[in-house]
Amino acid sequence: MTTQTPAEPLPRTAPGTAAGTAPGTDRRTAAAVEVRDLRRAYASGAEAVRGISFTVGPGEVFGLLGTNGAGKTSTTEVVAGLAAPTSGTVRVLGHDPVRERRRVRPRTGVVLQSGGLPGDLTVAEAAAAWAATLSAARPVADVLAALDLTREASTPVKSLSGGERRRLDLAVALLGDPELLLLDEPTTGLDAESRRAVWDLVHELAAAGTAVLLTTHHLEEAERLADRLAVLHRGLVVAEGTVADVVATHRAEVRWHRDAGRPGADVLGPGDTVALDGRHVVVRTASLQRTLARVLAWAQEQDLELAELRATPASLETAFLALARTADETR
Question: Domains along the chain?
Answer without folding.
Answer: 33-247 (3.40.50.300), 251-313 (3.30.70)
